[in-house]
Amino acid sequence: MKLTTIDTFDTISAADFQEHYYNPGKPVVIKRLSHQWPAFYKWDWDYFINIVGDKEVGVYNNIKSDAYTPINAADGYMKFGDYLQQVRKGPLELRIFLFNIFQHAPQIVNDFTWPDELMSGFVKKYPMLFVGGAGSITHMHYDIDMSHILHTQFAGKKRALLFPYEEGAKLYHKPWEVLCIPNFSNYHTQFDYESFPATKLANGYEVILDHGDTLFMPAGYWHHMEYIDSGFAMSLRALQPSLSGKLDGVWRLFGMRNIDNLMKKTAPEWWYNYKKEKTFAAANKELSLAG
Description:
Layout: E1 2-5, E2 8-9, H1 14-22, E3 28-30, H2 39-42, H3 45-52, E4 56-59, E5 76-79, H4 80-89, E6 95-99, H5 101-104, E7 128-132, E8 137-141, E9 148-155, E10 158-163, E11 203-209, E12 214-217, E13 222-227, E14 231-238, H6 243-266, H7 268-290
Parallel strand pairs: 1-11, 2-3
Antiparallel strand pairs: 3-12, 4-5, 6-7, 7-14, 8-13, 9-12, 9-14, 10-11, 10-13
Helix pairs in contact: 3-4, 6-7
């Protein structure tokens, strides 16, 4: 992997953000975007336990999906408060994602401000909370709805690895899915380049997010995240401004995913082998083009 650091600013003007990052589709970290929000000071483990600790949430382990696993299928369910109590104590390879805590406690939306000056199209009904114990991993994927993301870290440190959507073949992207075949866990210390040589050609970015850091991830960006510490983050999603971008997200969310889940139920081994063959053919083509 050919990795560079992500451009990082304490603050950035809307004009500079639009010209240099939003329009060209390039990630950036804004370190102080959240510092004026009440959430920057208020949000901690006890705050969420007291407000929504009784709500049941799906939890996810570090095991990568296989031929039989539907996308986004939870590995178990817990009370949110019980989960947070375990997370805060130390290493726990369980995480939650896409938890719309704001549906259960709508007053929390007063704890932050939508950065409408940076971009339009925010889906304001669906801010999402992400929580993970130290050691938990979000495996390499892109967000299926193809939205732009502002991802703000509120507790603990998190390592993020990102690639443009166009690098998917080099990452061994499985067709009809948002996932890749290789396991990128602990990629910074070990990676199976022997089995996945095309990954050496992939051009991407890496960054470590700390409390208050906001990462802009353009639509379709591949991302893999590792919780260095137990922590939580919030994602604000914004639809692409073009009609084609919106329709692409709808197709992937309701068409592509449902077809993939249906095939996993009816012909899982054939479907997996078919996708694997296509994946390696695309990766080998990248290797041949590189000479």
